[in-house]
Amino acid sequence: MDAAGAGGGLSSGKARAGRPTSRMRGKGGGGSALMLASMLDILMSILFFLLKNYSAVLSDFTMGKDIVLPSSIAKIPPAAHLNLQVTQRAIILDDKEIVSIINGDVDRRDLYRDGVTIVRLAQALKAQKDKSQLIQSKSGEVQKGEQSFTGTIVMQADKNLKFSLLKKVIYTAGITDFVMLKLAVLKKEDG
User: Fold this and answer.
1) The pTM is what?
2) Are 94 and 174 members of one domain?
3) Are 20 and 30 in contact, with CB atoms under 8 Å apart?
4) Is 49 in the same domain as 83?
5) Position with higher pLDDT, 90 vs 141
6) How far is the first Cα of the chain from the last one, in angstroms, to the nearest whole number?
7) Which helix (H) or strand (E) holds 110?
């Protein structure tokens, strides 16, 4: 009877092996339930990766109306600095037309005796520099949201302009202590 009882115990154990017992149900070992926690972890990791690698640049940088910017693979976004636009028709500093451009160049009457310095542009840049330095000296230090004079200009220049004109603009900016020139370009699309 021991052998039969042992045999009977084995066969009844095999019968129970496929069904969960009340003890197994109490421990939550139901084997067929889907574990969503690890799926959510994976999805959150993918979401964070995509958010980190996606960049949308918001700035107060406005592009000139009649400018066709050159293309580049530059990745540095434009910062808020003095905005200089050189279009086919005019040189514009912070949305104010400074000098007209006729036939792709500045009129000789708008140039200094050296034939390179653009007089009205130099005066406007010097006024911007003086204004920036005055704000800094009156406040003792830079106020929140304001910048001290850094000599930085963001220049938007039409890609079809003559280099001789750009040379005059860059030279004029340089002699008025605006030596950090950043050229605005359009980002080339990959592919």
Assistant:
1) 0.57
2) yes
3) yes
4) no
5) 90
6) 81
7) none
